[in-house]
Q: What sequence folds into this?
DNA sequence: TCTGGGGTCCTAGGACCC
DNA sequence: TCTGGGGTCCTAGGACCC
């Protein structure tokens, strides 16, 4: 069955209903989403925390990024800064964790592998979400199949999930939302089975649609579109005029015309690494260490995806919330030849920092971006650089990467990254990484 | 006192070319 | 004297996602 692009659809004279029918028959997407993922990972090894309010914090213990249902009902908002909610947290004995990304990515890997065993046509959309395309498989009963995924994944990994089924990705996100929020669906919602879908859509705000946030919501509200039902039944040309191709695509997807398919994994186009400092920093030396560290981590990522970058951007900033005079600046340098060598990029990063560092400010954050990324194997050989040096550097990087991978930590690093690391991010409430040998849970 | 981090895609506008 | 316009590429910024 041909996929009809939004453009082709817009250009066609055929009645929409013909397309809708064809598309409904042609594709079935399942969106699988882990419930309160970070919180669920923490609970996995701490069953004593079931049914208790838990929150997980962002880097530097700054904001709330994951909440258990109990924490949600206390009114703790997603993204809320921790210090504003100290009272609620204290009065209700809310359990707090710093984010433990090593643990979460290990658990995520388990969940995704389980999903892949059901359907190879998978797009891992984020650490806790994946789309499956089910219509290419021979499945007798799609609902039974989804129910099976639902129970097996929870059983195998211990992580609760929700599943939304629909003929487009946008609709499957909505179906997933319904599965998650309405207990009568028992965690799995097939949108095509719902008889009174209009009644449900009339009760959902446009901001509940994937791709519609504040700005877009305001634009839609201004033309009297408030609910998903309103949006779905509005005028395509008007939507195109007001929201551009992105909005038009959403409109079509809501109407069952699939414009977005499963995406293959592609190499990152930029790799960035930035952190707020645990405490404000004023000295060049400390910030220089942090920058060297960010650069080294980003280069390791670059090598892991077998790519090279042409240049680096370095930036530093004072806190945007500070009452004092603010300063932020960035500087970039392009290399003569693309590289993935940490030492080379660290040197350039420090040149950048010298250009932008100003005395007299308390810095809050620093970061780097590697840009113009291309695949390693299509790298052009330089005429100037010595090939022997190049080979030696590659070997050195491989030794560093292998050792750090084996030890699952940074046992080999550059002196410029520093040892004291006064700038390091705050992570006071971190759980053990239960999935690694040296931190396995103990049974008493 | 204390407010995260890493991405993607799209668009508008400028520079440049013929 | 009359002073175009279309195409392409690049970049910065906006909007959104989790």
A:
């Amino acid at each position: 069955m041909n996929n009809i692009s939004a453009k082709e659809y817009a250009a066609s004279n055929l009645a929409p209903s013909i397309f809708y029918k064809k598309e409904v028959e042609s594709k079935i997407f399942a969106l699988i989403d882990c419930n309160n993922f970070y919180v669920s990972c923490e609970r996995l090894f701490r069953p004593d925390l079931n049914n208790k309010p838990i929150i997980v914090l962002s880097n530097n213990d700054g904001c709330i990024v994951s909440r258990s249902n109990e924490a949600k009902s206390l009114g703790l908002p997603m993204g809320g800064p921790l210090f504003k909610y100290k009272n609620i947290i204290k009065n209700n004995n809310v359990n707090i964790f710093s984010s433990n990304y090593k643990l979460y990515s290990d658990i995520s890997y388990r969940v995704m592998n389980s999903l892949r065993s059901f359907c190879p046509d998978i797009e891992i959309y984020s650490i806790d979400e994946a789309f499956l395309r089910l219509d290419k498989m021979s499945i007798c009963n799609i609902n039974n199949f989804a129910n099976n995924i639902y129970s097996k994944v929870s059983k195998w990994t211990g992580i609760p999930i929700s599943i939304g089924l629909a003929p487009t990705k946008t609709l499957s996100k909505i179906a997933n939302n319904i599965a998650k929020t309405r207990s009568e669906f028992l965690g799995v919602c097939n949108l095509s089975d719902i008889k009174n879908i209009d009644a449900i859509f009339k009760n959902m705000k446009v901001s509940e649609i994937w791709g519609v946030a504040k700005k877009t919501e305001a634009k839609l509200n201004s033309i009297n579109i408030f609910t998903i039902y309103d949006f779905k039944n509005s005028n395509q040309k008007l939507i195109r005029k007001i929201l551009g191709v992105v909005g038009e695509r959403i409109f079509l997807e809501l109407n069952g015309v699939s414009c977005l398919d499963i995406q293959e994994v592609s190499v990152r186009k930029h790799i960035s690494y930035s952190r707020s400092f645990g405490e404000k920093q004023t000295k060049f030396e400390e910030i220089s260490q942090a920058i060297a560290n960010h650069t080294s981590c980003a280069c390791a990522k670059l090598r892991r995806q077998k790519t090279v970058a042409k240049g680096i951007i370095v930036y530093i900033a004072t806190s945007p919330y500070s009452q004092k005079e603010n300063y932020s600046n960035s500087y970039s340098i392009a290399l003569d030849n693309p590289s993935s060598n940490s030492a080379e990029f660290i040197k350039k990063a420090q040149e950048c920092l010298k250009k932008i560092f100003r005395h007299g400010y308390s810095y809050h954050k620093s970061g780097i971006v590697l840009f113009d990324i291309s695949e390693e194997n299509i790298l052009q050989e330089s005429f100037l650089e010595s090939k022997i040096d190049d080979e030696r550097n590659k070997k050195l990087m491989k030794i560093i990467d292998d050792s750090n991978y084996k030890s699952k930590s940074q046992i080999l690093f550059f002196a410029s990254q520093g040892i004291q690391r006064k700038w390091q991010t705050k992570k006071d409430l971190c759980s053990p990484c239960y999935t690694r040998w040296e931190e396995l849970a103990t049974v008493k």
Remarks:
- Residues 57-63, 65, 79-84, 86, 99, 126, 244-246, 268-276, 319-321, 365, 367, 425-426 of chain A lie near DNA strand B (CB under 10 Å from a C1').
- The first strand of chain A starts at residue 29 and ends at 34.
- Residues 270-417 of chain A form a domain with the Dna Ligase; domain 1 fold (CATH 3.30.1490.100).
